[in-house]
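Good morning,

Attaching, inline, the backbone tokens for the sequence recovery test we're adding to the shared suite. The designed sequence is right after.
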């Protein structure tokens, strides 16, 4: 039993884009590491793990509401549950409408709790929602590396079937620079352990994280780590940062130099060129990414992915600028939009009216990207 009083259904601040239709279930609050220089999401917030008892009460609320909504949708009289809070009601209603196919365990590193507690939670989820196809969590490589293979397999057997890990980089110099709290070796060990447990694995890469100084190493060393892991998904997360973050002060103090869209495109190209011997699916599933069309499975889609980036890099500077402003304002999504005069013309007017040029384009794009953080 927990000494902490139950405060009702809780909702954390973040989830992957791929979990947009998922039930969000808060297992831990905030981040137990919370030292990464590129992340401000949990700064100033303490870490805590919620009790299994309270998590089960959250599940009970969701179960009551989803039963109610499904019964009502079937045209049968339904007794409305006692309302313990509008948050559970809203979450259950959205999840019911999404088909109740997936559950995401929040916050930043749910696997940090005791394996037996995670197994108890997963077992209770599967008991209440046996038709749910996927249960997913974020996890840190450092945490996964310390979980025994037996415990990780037991967690998989209990129902956790996808883990998202913020690799960010496979370059030790970059990982040290941004204070990630894990090195390349640990990332590889953790990724391989997840795969061994037969849990789907998403690994995240951040072009530009090492600045201009480490751009080449960031791409090549990350590709080498990913080649050794062979994750199910490689997800691209373009670096975008508000002024308040520590990494921003690093740029101001000359510790590293910010990369722009073109340089990050070169870095992504180098990463993909060096990904060999894997069967991963590369996803560009975030609004900050420059090329949403650069996605596909290795090795069969590799050439097509490279072709898009190479085409952008071969464009005249004016066309690169039009696409960058178009993408960052949301008025142009795909690179082939440059061939459409109806899409080009409004962006050219924006550029002319705001006197955007090669000297100001990087700063303007950085400011536009902050809207989506």
């Amino acid at each position: 039993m927990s000494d902490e009083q139950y405060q009702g259904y809780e909702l954390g601040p973040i989830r992957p884009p791929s979990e947009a239709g998922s039930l969000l279930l808060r297992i831990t609050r905030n981040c137990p590491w919370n030292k990464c220089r590129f992340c401000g999401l949990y700064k100033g917030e303490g870490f805590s793990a919620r009790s299994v008892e309270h998590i089960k009460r959250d599940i009970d609320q969701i179960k009551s509401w989803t039963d109610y909504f499904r019964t009502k949708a079937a045209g049968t009289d339904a007794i409305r549950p006692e309302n313990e809070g509008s948050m559970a009601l809203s979450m259950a209603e959205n999840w019911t409408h999404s088909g109740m196919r997936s559950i995401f365990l929040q916050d930043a590193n749910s696997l940090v709790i005791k394996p037996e507690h995670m197994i108890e939670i997963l077992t209770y989820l599967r008991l209440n929602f046996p038709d749910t196809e996927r249960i997913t969590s974020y996890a840190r490589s450092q945490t996964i590396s310390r979980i025994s293979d037996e415990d990780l397999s037991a967690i998989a057997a209990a129902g956790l079937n996808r883990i998202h890990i913020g690799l960010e980089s496979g370059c030790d110099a970059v990982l040290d620079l941004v204070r990630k709290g894990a090195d390349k070796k640990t990332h590889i060990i953790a990724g391989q352990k997840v795969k061994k447990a037969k849990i789907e694995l998403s690994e995240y890469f951040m072009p530009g994280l090492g600045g201009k100084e480490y751009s080449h190493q960031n791409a090549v060393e990350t590709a080498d780590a990913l080649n050794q892991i062979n994750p199910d998904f490689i997800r691209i997360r373009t670096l975008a940062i508000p002024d308040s973050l520590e990494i921003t002060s690093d740029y101001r103090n000359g510790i590293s130099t910010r990369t722009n869209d073109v340089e990050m495109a070169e870095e992504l190209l180098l990463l993909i060129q060096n990904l060999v011997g894997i069967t991963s699916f590369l996803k560009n599933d975030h609004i900050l990414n420059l090329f949403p069309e650069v996605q596909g499975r290795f090795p069969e889609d590799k050439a097509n992915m490279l072709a898009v980036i190479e085409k952008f890099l071969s464009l005249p500077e004016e066309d690169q600028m039009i696409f960058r402003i178009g993408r960052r304002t949301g008025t142009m999504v795909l690179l082939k939009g440059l061939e459409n005069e109806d899409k080009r013309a409004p962006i050219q007017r924006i550029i002319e009216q705001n006197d955007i040029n090669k000297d100001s384009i990087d700063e303007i794009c950085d400011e536009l990207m902050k809207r989506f953080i």
